[in-house]
Please model this.
Amino acid sequence: MLKHILKHDRRLLMADRVLWLAALLIVLCVSYAVYNGAGRAERWNKEVSEQLAHAQENLREQQIIVENIFSGRRNASDYPWTGFPQNAQQAATLPPGPLAAFAVGQSDLYPYSTSISLWKRDDNVFAKYQVESPLSLLAGRFDFAFVIVYLLPLLIIALSYNLLSSEKENGTLVLALSQPLNLRTLVGGRMLMRFALVLGLVVALCVLGFFASGMRFDAPGMSGRFSLWVLIAGAYAMFWFVLAAAVNALGRSSETNAATLTCLWLVFVLILPALLNLAVSAASPVPSRMQYVSALRAAENAASQIAHKLLASYYNDHPDLSANGAAVVPEWARKYYLVQREIEDRTTTILTDYEARLDEQQALVQKFRFLSPAIIAQEALHEIAGASLMRQRRFVAQTREFLVSWQELLSPKLLAGVRLHPAEYETLPHFAFVEEPLANVAERVQVGMLSLLLINAVLIGWSVSALRRYSPAA
Amino acid sequence: MTTTIAKKEFTEIVRDGRFRWIAGVLLLILLVAVIAGYQQSQEIKRDREAAANMDKQTWEAQGNKNPHSAAHFGHYAFKPATALSYVDRGLNQYLGVAIWLEAHYQNLSSHRPIEDKTALQRFGELTVAWTLQYLVPLLIILLAFASFAGEREAGTLRQLVSLGVPSRKLAFGKALGEVAALALVLIPATLIAAVLLAGLKTGERFGEATLRFITLSGSYLLYFAAILGLSLAISAKVKSSRVALLALIGFWIISNLLAPRLASDISERLYPSPVVSEFWEAISKDIREGLDGHNPSDQRGKQLEARVLAQYNVKELKDLPVNFAGIALQEGEEYANQVFDKHYGGLWALYEKQASVQQLASLVSPLLAIRNVSMGLAGTDLYQHRHFAEQAELHRRKIIKQLNEDMAQNAGKQDYDYLADPALWEKVPQFEYVSPSLGSVLGQQFGNLLILGLWCSATACFAVHAVRTMRLD
Model:
């Protein structure tokens, strides 16, 4: 019987022009989104490689000049700044996420590159980067994830709001049920057909988008990420179908169903996330950024006033580095370095406290996201695409680690007050962002996926029991 | 006759249980939004004031220090919260809360609140403005989609028209009834918002804040009128109420969901934001090599030396009665300021061009028009931010000049070893910011207000025309 229902339904759906139009709109939206996303990812890649090249060029230039100074071909006094340890800069860059063409997520808010040098401090590794237009940031980007989370449910609602109610209103339901047909099979079959069509459409769009944006399946982890993306999209689409079936099972008119489903869409996709946002900010407010900055400046004040003491005590502890006649790096630069470390020492607890509160807020969101499948889906999609806050935090953490290793390597030379040797330029470390292993990402996404499936199962169970009380006569 | 129609419409709507539920929920959301917004804006006000005080204390506690070191330490200019920001937070989450005023650099505003929020923030913030811009239009659509189409399906439209009421009055009567139903939600919320405004302690600018509030309410009324007009027109034109609802929801999706993102995408595509590293590199290149590319900084330094020696009629720097390092620093600042004017001018011009694309898009989406007007009146838009940034920059130039001049006058032979008296720090003025007047804001928003007015009148005409030419069954 199910086969007949499926075949019959497919014919009905294919003949409906409005549905073709809606599907076409989705295709157009996705094409635009992927085109946009791919362009953006390409530009990002280009900028990152340009900056890396630029940094290498600068270092090479400095190396050449230092070589010339050491070999006597050039006069050191002509180059008062070149070769000093504090002026050596290395680029720390974040490449675009694995599926960057599919989701912009949070990545437009944060910096993806900076230069590391001895001038930098814990808290100002990323500074002076806020040139992105706030108007663009406000609206957010039209990416594939947006189409899936916001627009796909509307297509699904349009397809299935009158799954059962139209038959009832036409009077054909009684007729259909006079066949050896279970109401549950009818609803299930019709829903399955629609779900298959939508899923097929989504998968086709994903595959086309994947190849159109120049991504490759043989790159490490890509096939895994792609499958996760499709699975989440599928589970989310299934939620809306199951919800539509549940609303149909209530036995109201098609119009009421449409209104109810649209209201539910509004609640899940717009209102609940906004309310939750408010609740999370109220329940777990992050301490004031300005207070942190004020504390930093007060620490800077205090530290600079004891700068000479810091320098003297450093040389006390490191007699082999005592400033002697050979020191070319000016004293103020050496003092500056120690003052920055002192500021870090004095404010490290504030920074960790601050970041702990940010983590708390994020954890709270993770807990309450199960209230809305839209939140679950969006978080999961952003994670998979590498456009999430987590990835950004990883980048910041890795950059800070790199800064520390850079400091450990070069600060002895700075405090000894000498130029870098040409050979040392060869051994300067390079920054390479280590992407999170797919297994870890999958583990986080898994929770979201399972919760979506659980919600779907509950709704199916409810629909099944509601259909028992369904009266097929109009 | 109009009032009779309005009364009938109003009674019918209010009797509908669904309307009561939806209106109740919407009112609740509005109340939550306005109270939360108010609390947050009070919090922000306290926070900024505390930060400004702390910064002043830190600045004055610098002790004996070289003025140039103090110039590097700098001031922070904090952006104060505007009176109506509790209603519309606008771009505030995406704009830095403070600007670091230091020597040698005109900084971008830093510490954007959005960076300390979770990913949930991008779903939208529950503010009064958001609710009025996104949810109230849906209520209006719900109220009005069946005004004529529903009557047509019920068979009562022919009777209604047979009364001989001119179509203008018919449309207006229906609209009035629906406005009255809407007022049940909007009036309590407005009253509470007004009461909270009074509690904001805006001091001598209370009159202006009240005017802003009234203008803002008026603008939102224009927006709602446009949506109402459109809904009535569609309801009269289209053959069934189902299709009317579909068309109006479709319009809402395009106007509220798609248009903002598409407009911002297109504006980014046409006028892309600069790459950070390129922005700063271009600035340092211009400073290094001169604005015209042929005036390198060391050459400028030599020219300055020659000029100053000639001015004081001495042969060598050590014979100068003033400190050359201080003079050179200020000269460097002046040149750099020209470079900054060029590049930041370019940046602001870019933002303006992007905003003009969005303004064009508001011809398709009334949401974009009201969003701009709302942000403008609440003082949370880019125009206000630019005003703040420019005032901060003027202050920066003033204080850096003051510090450099102190060094030039008093450093003598000590150059950078000269330590200024701590009293100098108290002589350097704090940054006092006065936000732009309502007049200038209205001038800035004239285009958007015009577009809103256009929407309102166009949809009103459309509605009247549709009612005049509607099919009766």
Summary: Chain A has a mean pLDDT of 89. The first strand of chain A starts at residue 90 and ends at 93.
